[in-house]
Amino acid sequence: MILGSIASGSSGNCLYVGNEKDHYLIDAGISRKKIMEGLQEMKIDPASIKAVFLTHEHNDHIAGLGVFLRKYHVPVFGTGGTIDAVLSCQKLGKIDRSLFEVIRKDEPVKIGSVKVEASGILHDAADPVSYTFEDETSKVGAVTDVGTFDDYLV
Fold first, then answer.
1. Residue 30 and residue 6 in contact, taking contact as beta carbons nearer than 8 Å
2. Secondary structure of 60-120 in the HEC alphabet?
3. Neighbours of 21 (CB within 10 A)
4. Angle (nearest 5°) at CA 37 between 91 and 77
5. Closest alpha carbon to 114 in 132, 130, 141, 135
6. pTM attached to this predicted model
């Protein structure tokens, strides 16, 4: 598994995670153009992204989501609380609601060649999570916006 940062900070967050077969984004808090540039720097075709995983609904994690989804119709995974908050956000423009799928904490799902698991985190959002991605050979985790941690998260 490869984990790469396209953007990280209060002005926008977007991470890439993937392997030779499958490619994913964690959050889309920057413009589609910047997401595409970051992927191209990593030699990843933006059209090959299989899904977007949302950590939470804050603008610096979803600002580019609407534009990205209108170009690339990929599934978006998040907790029920996160998805409800995102779909109520007027700033994202028209979004195809059928692209959104609920992921439950501590219930791994297999998407392509990768097992993805969401874990709850402490943050001032509707239902924030971190993620781990695991394939046959490796496992990576991504945690954002955590003010404190506990044994569960570790």
1. yes
2. HHHCCHHHHHHHCCCCEEECHHHHHHHHCCHHHCCCCHHHEEECCECCCEEECCEEEEEEE
3. 11
4. 50
5. 135
6. 0.94
Walk along the chain (154 residues) and give the pLDDT tens digit of each residue: 999 999 998 899 999 999 999 999 999 999 999 999 999 999 999 999 999 999 988 889 999 999 999 999 999 999 999 999 999 988 899 999 999 999 999 999 999 999 999 998 878 778 999 999 999 999 999 988 776 777 776 7
- Residues listed for the chain: 154
Helix (H) / strand (E) element for 3: namely strand 2-7
Can you tell me the distance from the alpha carbon of 35 to that of 68, in angstroms, rounded to the nearest whole number?
9
Three-state DSSP at 142 gives strand
